[in-house]
Design brief:
The chain is α+β, with helices and mostly antiparallel strands. Helices cover 47% and strands 22% of the residues. It has five helices and seven strands. The chain is elongated.
Protein backbone atom coordinates (compact mmCIF):
# COMPACT_ATOMS: atom_id res chain seq x y z
CA UNK A 1 0.00 0.00 0.00
CA UNK A 2 1.25 3.48 -0.74
CA UNK A 3 2.15 5.98 1.94
CA UNK A 4 -0.59 8.44 0.91
CA UNK A 5 -3.25 5.74 1.18
CA UNK A 6 -2.05 4.74 4.64
CA UNK A 7 -1.94 8.35 5.80
CA UNK A 8 -5.57 8.73 4.70
CA UNK A 9 -6.64 5.39 6.22
CA UNK A 10 -5.07 5.87 9.67
CA UNK A 11 -4.72 8.99 11.87
CA UNK A 12 -0.95 8.56 11.86
CA UNK A 13 0.30 11.87 10.50
CA UNK A 14 3.07 11.65 7.92
CA UNK A 15 4.87 8.36 7.48
CA UNK A 16 8.58 8.86 8.00
CA UNK A 17 10.03 5.41 7.46
CA UNK A 18 9.21 1.92 6.22
CA UNK A 19 10.92 -1.08 7.82
CA UNK A 20 11.24 -4.48 6.15
CA UNK A 21 12.49 -7.82 7.42
CA UNK A 22 16.26 -8.24 7.32
CA UNK A 23 17.72 -8.95 3.89
CA UNK A 24 19.24 -12.25 4.99
CA UNK A 25 15.87 -13.54 6.21
CA UNK A 26 14.04 -12.33 3.09
CA UNK A 27 16.51 -14.05 0.77
CA UNK A 28 16.59 -17.19 2.92
CA UNK A 29 12.82 -17.56 2.98
CA UNK A 30 12.54 -16.73 -0.73
CA UNK A 31 15.01 -19.52 -1.51
CA UNK A 32 13.14 -21.91 0.78
CA UNK A 33 9.78 -21.12 -0.82
CA UNK A 34 11.29 -21.32 -4.30
CA UNK A 35 12.61 -24.80 -3.51
CA UNK A 36 9.19 -25.85 -2.20
CA UNK A 37 7.52 -24.48 -5.35
CA UNK A 38 9.95 -26.30 -7.63
CA UNK A 39 9.40 -29.51 -5.67
CA UNK A 40 5.61 -29.12 -5.91
CA UNK A 41 5.70 -28.49 -9.66
CA UNK A 42 8.16 -31.35 -10.20
CA UNK A 43 6.06 -33.81 -8.22
CA UNK A 44 2.85 -32.73 -9.97
CA UNK A 45 4.46 -33.20 -13.42
CA UNK A 46 5.71 -36.66 -12.43
CA UNK A 47 2.31 -37.60 -11.08
CA UNK A 48 0.56 -36.28 -14.19
CA UNK A 49 2.85 -38.39 -16.39
CA UNK A 50 2.07 -41.50 -14.36
CA UNK A 51 -1.67 -40.97 -14.35
CA UNK A 52 -2.09 -39.70 -17.89
CA UNK A 53 -4.96 -37.29 -18.28
CA UNK A 54 -6.77 -38.18 -15.05
CA UNK A 55 -6.98 -35.71 -12.18
CA UNK A 56 -5.91 -36.92 -8.79
CA UNK A 57 -6.17 -35.33 -5.37
CA UNK A 58 -2.38 -35.53 -5.00
CA UNK A 59 -1.90 -33.61 -8.24
CA UNK A 60 -4.18 -30.85 -7.00
CA UNK A 61 -2.39 -30.84 -3.65
CA UNK A 62 1.07 -30.48 -5.23
CA UNK A 63 -0.16 -27.63 -7.45
CA UNK A 64 -1.67 -25.89 -4.41
CA UNK A 65 1.60 -26.30 -2.47
CA UNK A 66 3.52 -24.78 -5.37
CA UNK A 67 1.06 -21.88 -5.63
CA UNK A 68 1.20 -21.23 -1.89
CA UNK A 69 5.00 -21.26 -1.94
CA UNK A 70 5.15 -18.83 -4.86
CA UNK A 71 2.71 -16.47 -3.16
CA UNK A 72 4.66 -16.58 0.13
CA UNK A 73 7.88 -16.00 -1.78
CA UNK A 74 6.37 -12.89 -3.33
CA UNK A 75 5.19 -11.54 0.04
CA UNK A 76 8.51 -11.89 1.88
CA UNK A 77 9.67 -8.34 1.17
CA UNK A 78 6.49 -6.62 2.38
CA UNK A 79 6.79 -3.70 4.79
CA UNK A 80 6.44 -4.86 8.39
CA UNK A 81 6.41 -1.49 10.21
CA UNK A 82 5.57 2.04 9.12
CA UNK A 83 6.94 4.69 11.48
CA UNK A 84 4.83 7.84 11.45
CA UNK A 85 4.68 11.04 13.47
CA UNK A 86 1.63 10.05 15.58
CA UNK A 87 2.25 6.33 15.97
CA UNK A 88 3.32 3.17 14.20
CA UNK A 89 1.47 1.01 11.71
CA UNK A 90 2.21 -2.68 12.19
CA UNK A 91 1.34 -5.78 10.24
CA UNK A 92 -0.67 -7.86 12.71
CA UNK A 93 -0.17 -11.62 12.63
CA UNK A 94 -3.35 -13.41 11.55
CA UNK A 95 -4.80 -15.67 14.23
CA UNK A 96 -7.58 -17.52 12.42
CA UNK A 97 -7.19 -19.60 9.28
CA UNK A 98 -9.74 -17.33 7.60
CA UNK A 99 -7.54 -14.31 8.35
CA UNK A 100 -4.48 -16.10 6.92
CA UNK A 101 -6.33 -16.84 3.70
CA UNK A 102 -7.64 -13.26 3.44
CA UNK A 103 -4.11 -11.94 4.02
CA UNK A 104 -2.96 -13.58 0.78
CA UNK A 105 -5.48 -11.67 -1.29
CA UNK A 106 -5.60 -8.43 0.70
CA UNK A 107 -2.46 -8.13 2.85
CA UNK A 108 -3.37 -4.61 3.96
CA UNK A 109 -6.31 -5.90 6.04
CA UNK A 110 -3.90 -6.93 8.79
CA UNK A 111 -2.41 -3.48 9.27
CA UNK A 112 -2.97 -1.97 12.70
CA UNK A 113 -2.29 1.58 13.84
CA UNK A 114 -1.08 2.11 17.43
CA UNK A 115 -0.52 5.56 18.92
CA UNK A 116 2.81 6.06 20.66
CA UNK A 117 1.18 7.01 23.97
CA UNK A 118 -0.57 3.64 24.24
CA UNK A 119 2.44 1.44 23.54
CA UNK A 120 3.78 -0.19 26.69
CA UNK A 121 6.47 -2.26 24.98
CA UNK A 122 7.34 -5.23 22.84
CA UNK A 123 7.54 -8.84 23.93
CA UNK A 124 10.94 -10.39 24.50
CA UNK A 125 10.77 -12.28 21.22
CA UNK A 126 9.23 -9.37 19.23
CA UNK A 127 6.11 -11.43 18.56
CA UNK A 128 3.78 -9.39 20.77
CA UNK A 129 3.08 -5.72 21.33
CA UNK A 130 1.57 -4.58 24.62
CA UNK A 131 -0.81 -1.64 24.31
CA UNK A 132 -2.64 0.16 27.08
CA UNK A 133 -6.18 1.16 26.14
CA UNK A 134 -7.95 4.32 27.24
CA UNK A 135 -9.71 2.40 30.01
CA UNK A 136 -6.41 1.19 31.44
CA UNK A 137 -6.61 -2.41 30.30
CA UNK A 138 -3.83 -4.10 28.37
CA UNK A 139 -4.35 -5.22 24.79
CA UNK A 140 -1.88 -7.71 23.32
CA UNK A 141 -1.32 -7.37 19.57
CA UNK A 142 0.22 -10.43 17.88
CA UNK A 143 2.94 -9.23 15.52
CA UNK A 144 5.84 -10.82 13.71
CA UNK A 145 8.85 -8.56 14.04
CA UNK A 146 11.40 -11.17 15.09
CA UNK A 147 12.98 -11.15 11.63
CA UNK A 148 13.83 -7.44 11.64
CA UNK A 149 17.51 -6.61 11.72
CA UNK A 150 19.02 -5.39 14.99
CA UNK A 151 19.45 -1.87 13.58
CA UNK A 152 15.78 -1.72 12.56
CA UNK A 153 14.67 -2.93 15.98
CA UNK A 154 16.77 -0.20 17.57
CA UNK A 155 15.19 2.37 15.20
CA UNK A 156 11.73 1.31 16.33
CA UNK A 157 12.70 1.48 20.01
CA UNK A 158 14.39 4.86 19.50
CA UNK A 159 11.33 6.35 17.85
CA UNK A 160 9.10 4.83 20.50
CA UNK A 161 11.13 6.36 23.34
CA UNK A 162 11.45 9.70 21.55
CA UNK A 163 7.75 10.13 20.80
CA UNK A 164 6.50 8.58 24.03
CA UNK A 165 8.05 11.41 26.02
CA UNK A 166 6.29 14.10 23.98
Amino acid sequence: MKREELENMFPCGTIQEEIHNSTVMVWGFQLLYAAIAVWGIYRSVLLYRELGSGMNIWLILFVMVAGYALLRMYQQDDVEVYIATEGIILKRTPILVKERIERFFAPDLCLTFVHYQGIMGFGEDWKTLYVQTETGSIYIVPISLQFLSHQDKMKVLDRLSRYKDI
